[in-house]
Amino acid sequence: MKRKICIIGSGTAGLQLAYSLKEEFDVTVVHANSSDKIQNGRILSTQVHFGSTRNRENRFNMPKWEDTTLLNSIHMTIGNQKLFVGKLKEPALSVDQRLYFSQGMKDLETKGVSFRHLRVHKEQIESFVAEFDLLIDCTGKSGPLFPFPIESELSPFQVPQRKCIVGYFFGVKPNQPLGVSVTVLPGIGEMFEIPALTEHGSVTILFLMAIPDRELDVFKKMNNKNAFTHQMKNVTREYFQDIHERIEQDMFALADDNAFLQVAIKPVIRKPYVTFKNKLVVGCGDSVFLNDPITGQGCNLSSYCAEKLYETLIQYKDSNWDIRVGEAYWDQTKAYVKEVTEWTNAMTKDLPQHVIQMLLGGAENQMIADEVANWFADPRKAYEAFFQPSNL
Ligand SMILES: Cc1cc2nc3c(=O)[nH]c(=O)nc-3n(C[C@H](O)[C@H](O)[C@H](O)COP(=O)(O)OP(=O)(O)OC[C@H]3O[C@@H](n4cnc5c(N)ncnc54)[C@H](O)[C@@H]3O)c2cc1C
C-alpha cells in the first residue's frame, strides 16, 4: 500500500508537490477555496516563474502555458535614469495565479489526486496527523498551522517593509524586448512592471512597492476599482514617466473587477519541520519561508524547496518518516533559503555603494547588465554580489 500524504494548501508549493509525489504516494490536497472560487476571485499575487522553476514544472509534467508572453529580459531604472536591459539566460513566464492554481487543481483531480474542500483550523490538525503518514503544511502566508520554530537570524523585521499595491491592467504598451521592468526610487519604493498571461489574455501588471508613510504610500482606502485605477494613473504620471508614456489613455483599465490587491507582508523564516503528536510534519513555501516580494522570489523559492522535499521523501521512501527526514530536507534547503532571504532583506534597504556601482556598470557593459538580470533567476549570484563581492 502506498503511504498517505496530506498537503494542506493548493498554491504554488502544494500543487508542485502534488504533481511530483502523486505517482509514489497516495496524495490528498486540502484546500480552503474551490477551483472556481479561485478562478473568479481576487488576484492573489504577482508571479514570475524563472527558468529553473519552469524546468521543474516540466520535470513534474505540470500544465504548459501559451508562450506568447515569455519574458526574456530585465529592464533596470534608478530614479528617472534607465540603466540597461539585461538578457535572461532562460525565458521566464508570469501566469495569473487564479488561472494557474485553478487549472492545476482540475488537472490533478483527473490524475488521481484526492481533493478535500476545507479550510483547516488549528483545532482540526490532530485528526489530520492521525489520518495520514505525513502532513505537509503549504498554507502560504496565512499559515502555518503547525508550530515550526522561527529562525530569528533570518527574521529581522517586526513590521512589513513595504506596502504591496498590485493591479493587472489592459492598456499599457509593454516594454520591448518583453521583460520585467524594475524601477527603484531610492527612499520611497519601487515599481515592477510585469507582462503576464491571464484568463482574459495578456495584461501588464503594475506592482508598486511603497515604503510605508512615504510619497508612494497613497492607496489607503482605495477599495474600489475606479479609485484604484485613477490613483495608479496619478502615480505613474508623477513618478514613473516611462510607464505613463506607454499608457493608452482610453484603454487603461483593470483586467477585471478583482484584478487589484493591497497587502503588506512581515517576512519570517521558520525551520520547516516539527514533531507533532510524535509524528513528523513538514512545511513548504510561504508558510515557513515567507519573504518580502521585492525580489520576486516567493514562487521560485517555493518551487525549489518543493523539489528538495520531493527528493528527500523519495530518498527516504522506505524508511521511517521521523525527525531525520525533516533534518535532511532542511539540510537540502537551508543554504538557498538563507541566500534568498538575506538578499531580499537587503533589497528592502538602501542599496550598498558597491551594488549601485555595479548597476551603473551595467549601463556601460552588457555583460554586467546580463549578470544583474540573472540575479533574479539565480538569487545565489545576487547574494554573492551583495555579500561576497571579492569573490566576483
Ligand atoms: C503582492 C505579492 C507579489 C508577489 N510577487 C511575486 C513575484 O513577482 N514572484 C514570485 O516568485 N513570488 C511573488 N510573490 C510571492 C508568491 O506569491 C508566493 O511566495 C507563493 O505563491 C507561495 O506559494 P505557497 O504555495 O507557499 O502559498 P500560496 O500560493 O499562497 O498558497 C497557499 C494556499 O493554501 C491555502 N490555505 C491557506 N490556509 C489554509 C487552510 N487553513 N486550510 C486549507 N487551505 C489553506 C490558500 O487558500 C492557498 O491556496 C508575491 C506575493 C505577493 C503577496
TrEMBL record:
<protein>
    <submittedName>
        <fullName>Styrene monooxygenase</fullName>
    </submittedName>
</protein>
<keyword id="KW-0560">Oxidoreductase</keyword>
<dbReference type="Pfam" id="PF17885">
    <property type="entry name" value="Smoa_sbd"/>
</dbReference>
<dbReference type="InterPro" id="IPR041654">
    <property type="entry name" value="StyA_sbd"/>
</dbReference>
<dbReference type="GO" id="GO:0004497">
    <property type="term" value="F:monooxygenase activity"/>
</dbReference>
<feature type="domain" description="Styrene monooxygenase StyA putative substrate binding">
    <location>
        <begin position="140"/>
        <end position="246"/>
    </location>
</feature>
<keyword id="KW-0503">Monooxygenase</keyword>
<dbReference type="InterPro" id="IPR036188">
    <property type="entry name" value="FAD/NAD-bd_sf"/>
</dbReference>
